[in-house]
Design goal:
It contains three helices and eight strands; from the N terminus they run ααββββββββα. It is α+β, with helices and mostly antiparallel strands. Strands 3, 4, 5, 7 and 8 form a five-stranded antiparallel β-sheet that branches. Helix 1 crosses helix 3. The longest helix has 46 residues.
C-alpha cells in the first residue's frame, strides 16, 4: 500500500514538473515571438522609405485618400484652423467607427508638435482622432465598401504654422463589430512622428 502510494506520488510529481516545464517553454516561445515581431517592425521601419510606406498604406482595407489644411480665416464654419482628411473604405464591410493618426510639418519639413486651440502643454508629434458615425448625428451611420468619407476634422493651433500633413487610419470597427488594427501603424509612427520629412525620390 505504501509502495503504491509512493509510486503514485512520484508519478504526480513528475507530471506536475512536466506541465511546469511545458508552461515555461510556451511562455518563452510567446515572448520570443513578440520580440521577433518588434524586431521585424523596427527593421521594416528603418528599411522603408516614406514613399514606399505611403504606397503600402493606400492598399489597406481603409486608408486616407487625401489630406488638407483648413484656415479659419477663410471659412465662416470653422472657429479654428484644422487638419482634415478623407478616408476611403476599401474593405468588404460597412465601417461604423475609425481612428485616424496625424503628423504635421512646417515649411522646412521639420516635425511640429500638434496642439489644439487652448490646450495646455506642448502637444505631441502624433495625434489621433476617433469618429463613430452612430454617435455623431446625421443620416450617415456607416461607410459602405468603396465609399469615401470627407473632411475628418482635427482643430489645431496655428502657431507654429502647419504646411504639410501625413495621416493614416489606425483602426476601424464595422457595424458587425469586426475590428481591424493597422499593422503598419508602428511603422507610420517610426517614419513620421517627430522625424523630418524624407525628400521625395525622383
Amino acid at each position: 500500500m505504501d509502495k503504491r502510494l509512493n509510486k503514485n506520488t512520484i508519478i504526480i510529481i513528475i507530471l506536475v514538473a512536466l506541465i511546469a516545464i511545458a508552461g515555461a517553454v510556451l511562455a518563452a516561445t510567446v515572448v520570443a515571438q513578440k520580440n521577433d515581431e518588434k524586431t521585424t517592425a523596427a527593421t521594416t521601419a528603418q528599411a522603408i522609405s516614406s514613399a514606399e510606406l505611403d504606397s503600402l498604406l493606400e492598399q489597406q482595407p481603409m486608408f486616407t485618400d487625401g489630406v488638407k489644411y483648413f484656415y479659419a480665416s477663410s471659412s465662416k464654419q470653422l472657429e479654428h484652423d484644422a487638419m482634415g482628411a478623407t478616408v476611403f473604405n476599401n474593405s468588404d464591410v460597412d465601417i461604423q467607427s475609425f481612428t485616424i493618426a496625424f503628423c504635421a510639418y512646417d515649411e522646412n519639413d521639420n516635425p511640429i508638435r500638434i496642439k489644439q486651440p487652448d490646450e495646455s502643454g506642448d502637444g505631441a508629434y502624433i495625434r489621433t482622432i476617433s469618429y463613430d458615425l452612430s454617435k455623431v448625428g446625421g443620416d450617415k451611420k456607416s461607410i459602405k465598401p468603396q465609399e469615401s468619407f470627407d473632411n475628418v476634422i482635427f482643430y489645431v493651433s496655428n502657431d507654429p504654422q502647419i504646411v504639410t500633413i501625413k495621416a493614416c487610419v489606425k483602426t476601424y470597427t464595422s457595424v458587425d463589430n469586426i475590428s481591424w488594427d493597422n499593422p503598419y501603424y508602428s511603422t507610420f509612427k517610426t517614419v513620421y512622428s517627430g522625424q523630418q520629412l524624407q525628400p521625395e525620390q525622383e
